[in-house]
Amino acid sequence: MASLAALSSNLFNGGCLWKYQDELKVSNAGKLRIRVTSMASSSPAQSLQFADGKANKLEKLRIGVLGASGYTGSEIIRLLRNHPHFQITLMTADRKAGQSIESVFPHLVTQDLPNLVAVKDADFSAVDALFCCLPHGTTQEIIKSLPTNLKIVDLSADFRLQDIAEYEEWYGQPHKATALQKEAVYGLTEISRREIQSARLVANPGCYPTSVQLPLIPLIKSNLIEVRNIIIDSKSGVSGAGRGAKEANLYTEIAEGIHSYGITRHRHVPEIEQGLSEAANSKVTVSFTPHLMPMSRGMQSTIYVEMAPGVTTQDLKDHLGNYYEHEEFVVLLKNKEVPHTRHVRGSNYCLMNVFPDRIPGRAIIISVIDNLVKGASGQALQNLNLMMGIQENLGLGCLPLFP
Ligand SMILES: NC(=O)C1=CN([C@@H]2O[C@H](COP(=O)(O)OP(=O)(O)OC[C@H]3O[C@@H](n4cnc5c(N)ncnc54)[C@H](OP(=O)(O)O)[C@@H]3O)[C@@H](O)[C@H]2O)C=CC1
Ligand SMILES: CC(=O)N[C@@H](CCC(=O)OP(=O)(O)O)C(=O)O
């Protein structure tokens, strides 16, 4: 793999070896913008050929997926199917170690993938980068023991909170990798692109915090909304709880009804407040209540905010529209269109819109994402693309599923 090593080393040094062109914007009923990308003359394959002078076959970066038998891991595998420069060479599982991926997820049968192995049996010399899709609380020790040259995107909550004491308070256990915590970059892609590009370890945001911070951070940074009295009402599909069997997630427990949970105590509160406080440059406290919905995937956050004096809902719309104008995956809907979770199913889009409240001076912001894609695996892939110097949206251009 000498040529791959040459390529990797160039990428790890922050080089962006290849560029993509032919951006084609397609309007989908005036709502979504799709970019079709194709390789320009300086492709990674060509760089690779130049690197060893004789390679004539495309080589890819070798990707490991820890927790491949879970929901977010399987979504990573689905997305990587269309990635021209990433090839999965390692997949781990816990209870399902030893099995083939198609025995765990039959819809992935057409892919040529290695069998699932236990983390303790994984050969990390066979990978250049990792997606870590393990339950929170298990990841710190595992990542701490890995070779330090690996680029890692951790989808768990283990490295999201910069304040160790806050982590220990909200997660109820000691932090086991405090040195690594200092290195970890919080990976809200559209907000922290530059930091992500040079990161080795990225803490991928939680799904609720993604749906909340994408609309609020630009508005707070521009002082368009007050940072007091922010009320967030969020709703999630059941896949947000992972694939592990839990009584509370049985069909009989969640079908034909909804319920709130984690009222004032949900572990995403400190994550949301961390991001909003950084944007405001002062401590922000929010009222956040999540709800479990009888649907398999998707998430909506309805956010009630107070506007700064003299600001109108049109000002909020104009600002969000401008802020995300060149973003492929964050879309401000037009006019009074209401975001719907069905419109983002299976895709990496965040759709949002702003509405006037009946209470003068207040606005209602609604954002929707697919918790498993923009709220997890899709954003993780955007982040790894950035970390590897690859065009950020590669592998993610799929249209939403409808219905
Ligand atoms: N689901 C979602 O919407 C989102 C989840 N996340 C985060 O992503 C991470 C993965 O979530 P999700 O995919 O839903 O979880 P799942 O429960 O669906 O999958 C967990 C995976 O980790 C493996 N695993 C479980 N315990 C251990 C262990 N002790 N050691 C090693 N491997 C283990 C499981 O293996 P096996 O199947 O063999 O038991 C499985 O592959 C979590 O940290 C979650 O908080 C982030 C954003 C959104
Ligand atoms: C429905 C449901 O249970 N959702 C999860 C959040 C899932 C998520 O995205 O966040 P993490 O990555 O932090 O796990 C919860 O409320 O804990």
Automatic annotation (TrEMBL):
EC nos: 1.2.1.38
InterPro entries referenced in this protein's UniProt entry, alphabetically: AGPR (IPR050085), AGPR_AS (IPR023013), AGPR_dimerisation_dom (IPR058924), AGPR_type-1 (IPR000706), NAD(P)-bd_dom_sf (IPR036291), Semialdehyde_DH_NAD-bd (IPR000534)
Reactions mediated catalytically: N-acetyl-L-glutamate 5-semialdehyde + phosphate + NADP(+) = N-acetyl-L-glutamyl 5-phosphate + NADPH + H(+)
SUPFAM superfamilies in the record: Glyceraldehyde-3-phosphate dehydrogenase-like, C-terminal domain (SSF55347), NAD(P)-binding Rossmann-fold domains (SSF51735)
Pathway given in the UniProt record: Amino-acid biosynthesis; L-arginine biosynthesis; N(2)-acetyl-L-ornithine from L-glutamate: step 3/4
One of the record's GO molecular function terms: NAD binding
Protein name: Probable N-acetyl-gamma-glutamyl-phosphate reductase, chloroplastic
Organism: Solanum pinnatisectum
